[in-house]
Write a sequence for this structure.
């Protein structure tokens, strides 16, 4: 017979008042930094798209789904190519080839900065469209699993 070792009990330590206050201050700072205007704009775009999409579906407009899914794919690809990937930061000067002149490096960095600003504007529309697609997929594939 093999002897079973008793499981060790996990010890949970409560945060000290200093740690609690530091965490609370960090959360408050993050909320102050949060861009509420942008979140409101994206929520409004999501609501308008969702209402329009489901009204079209209710009226049996059969091209609504392919248009939504195609728009989501096109917006995603445009964002990806305009932004040159998913990076948020502008390319640092040190990462550029050494054989480039300083003028060319400066021009490339400025072009990259303008591309990222334009990509951010694309993302403001892309995220709500992708959320509508996600809601549609959930309503099509996941919710019927819970219906008895």
């Amino acid at each position: 017979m093999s002897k079973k070792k008793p499981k060790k009990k996990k010890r949970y330590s409560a945060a000290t008042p200093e740690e609690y206050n530091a965490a609370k201050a960090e959360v408050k700072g993050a909320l102050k930094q949060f861009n509420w205007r942008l979140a409101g704009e994206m929520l409004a775009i999501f609501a308008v798209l969702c209402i329009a999409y489901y009204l079209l579906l209710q009226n049996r407009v059969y091209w609504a789904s392919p248009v939504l899914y195609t728009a989501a794919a096109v917006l995603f690809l445009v964002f990806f190519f305009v932004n040159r990937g998913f990076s948020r930061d502008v390319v640092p000067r040190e990462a550029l080839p050494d054989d480039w002149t300083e003028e060319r490096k400066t021009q490339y960095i400025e072009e990259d900065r303008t591309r990222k600003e334009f990509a951010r504007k694309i993302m403001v529309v892309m995220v709500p469209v992708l959320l509508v697609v996600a809601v549609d997929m959930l309503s099509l594939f996941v919710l019927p699993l819970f219906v008895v």
User: Anything to note?
Assistant: The mean pLDDT is 91.
